[in-house]
Amino acid sequence: MSMPTHAVATLLARGAAPDFDAWRRNVLGLNGCTNPVHLVGSALLVDPSTGEALRSYDSGLYGGRLLVACGNRRASVCPTCARTYRADTFHLIRAGLVGGKSAPASVAAHPRVFVTLTAPGFGRVHTRREREGRVWVCRPRRAGGERCPHELPVGCRERHCADDPRLGEPLCPHCYDYAGAVLWQANAARLWHRFVLELRREIARHAGVDRTRLAESARLSYAKVAEYQRRGLIHFHAVIRLDGPDGPDSAPPRWATTELLAGAVSASVGRARLIAPGTAVVGRRALLFGAQVDVRPIAEFGTGQLTSGAVAGYIAKYATKGAEVAGAVDVRIQHARQLVLLPVRRHVLRMVGTCWWLGALPDFEPLGLRRWAHMLGYGGHFSTKSRRYSTTLTALRQARAEHRADEQRAARGLAERPLVTVGHWRYAGRGYSPEAALLAASVRERGASHDA
Fold first, then answer.
1. What does the alpha-carbon distance between residue 86 and residue 1 come to, in Å, rounded to a whole number?
2. Cα distances (angstroms) measured from residue 71 to each of 78, 80, 89, 192, 446
3. pTM above 0.70?
4. Which residues pair with 430 in a beta bridge?
5. Is 74 left (phi over 0), alpha (psi -120 to 50) or beta?
6. Cβ neighbour number for residue 106 with a 10 Å cutoff
């Protein structure tokens, strides 16, 4: 790690300051967060039974400001906080499959499947087809064969490498339906909701139960994550589980089997559809999922089977990714002039431009396309779950905070006393000073070598 001379000199000067130890503990406690939040204020540690103030904290102890981790879930923004978010997501997903974190162990016997729902096609794009260790031709066609209305080939005979910048790019950008792609993306969260409604109806039909009374015998639970593809559209990966009427604490009815659930998912995908807004502008468009649907049962153990741990790890990995996977940008676009300077490939720029154009029309105003142009139109949550799937990320964060607080109390000999923290903090900025950035970089470097 190279060390800028100014930063080193500033760090040495900081080392001579009387508050150096407290400042150093604060920076090291961030575990290498790349963009911490600055707070100013104070807090008191109070014994509620006596009203005695046992300890006071103020931002003066840390060089004038208290730094807290940014908590960003995206690995491209803050690898440290994304690592924590990924671990929390892993435990949340796994708890809904094997129990723990408020979910009973009996949930492992409930029917559950791992589902991947894809976006439909809006035009041919360059792709990498790999099967049994071999890379196949991108879009096989005879040389000099069929061409599109714009006189461009409809096929590609190349075998693309994994880092080929053409992957995801349309074979013909004029034929590609950018308006349809953006509208599908903007309505993807609503389309998922429609799919869940259709799935409940299909389960009731398979079980021979009136759909209005399904909740009396079974309850559907799920957790999902959105993943961007190179072509700029998202896929949904989800765990779907069938419980009894009271959720994971109750056994599902006898008719609830993994085979029934898998069949109901496959049948429901094609029935989930919406009509896109703006018919007068772009014509009538039906929004639905793509034809490629993957439904796989989840096993607890077994060689060659999809296990609970593998599913939890897979979903947790994609929970920390964003539109940067498709080559998009991390920040919102405020003005049209920014489009000219975006460091993105042409396909992504066309999707962003389509969001900006449609977003200015009254018919599409409810979609907030300009607000979500940097996300290529998708404004939904990246990871969501039904209420009774398992624990929540908030509960996991609270448990971690309480555990750390207990450790600190024990270190100060206050473990046996019921304590309350009373304080007031306000936002005062972001980032590191040069000397703090140097210290945080060393923490990140140690963490990277440890992970390796």
1. 26
2. 8, 9, 13, 27, 20
3. yes
4. 37
5. beta
6. 13
